[in-house]
Amino acid sequence: MTYMLCRQKVADFEKWKQVFDSHAAAQSESGLQVQHVWRNIDNSHEVFMLFQVTDLTKAKAFVTSPDVPRAQEESGALEYPDSYFLT
Fold first, then answer.
1. Of 32, 78, 80, 83, most Cβ neighbours within 10 A?
2. Kind of pairing, strands 82-86 and 2-9?
3. CATH number for the domain including 66?
4. Whole-angstrom distance, CA of residue 44 vs CA of residue 53
5. Domain that holds residue 78
6. In what order do the strands lie in the sheet with 46-53?
7. Which residues, at least 6 apart from 1, have a Cβ–Cβ distance to it below 8 Å?
8. Could you give the C-alpha distances from 30 to 4, 9, 46, 78, in angstroms and in order?
9. Residues 6+ apart with CB under 8 A from 35
10. CA angle 37–13–70, rounded 5-degree value
11. 72 vs 52 pLDDT, higher one
């Protein structure tokens, strides 16, 4: 099984989560299924996301899409997410 783990810093978790959730259909169409979303206990502005990857090619294209920076800006993300594909 393949997974994608992401780490991101956000200004406001509630605002970020609302935007993140609104992209569920796009994530699914891109071969990504959300498994978990966590906040760092010691830094509530740091978020970790674990996705199951059902289509690696689509998932890689999604995370490098020109739409990502727009979504990041809309969500209040403080930086571009670190993404790791894992098996």
1. 32
2. antiparallel
3. 3.30.70.100
4. 26
5. 2-86
6. 32-39, 46-53, 2-9, 82-86
7. 52, 87
8. 12, 23, 24, 24
9. 3, 50, 51, 52
10. 90
11. 52
Whole-angstrom distance, CA of residue 84 vs CA of residue 56: 12
Indicate the residue type of 71.
A
Report whether 33 contacts 52 (CB < 8 A).
yes
Cα→Cα distances 11→14, 61, 73, 78, Å: 9, 26, 11, 6
- State the amino acid at position 55 in one-letter form: D
Total domains, the chain: 1
pLDDT tens-digit series, residues 7-32: 999 999 999 999 999 999 999 999 99
- CA atoms of 57 and 59, how far apart (whole Å): 5
**54 phi and psi angles, rounded to 5 deg:** -100, -20
| Residue keyed to tokens 């990857």 | 53
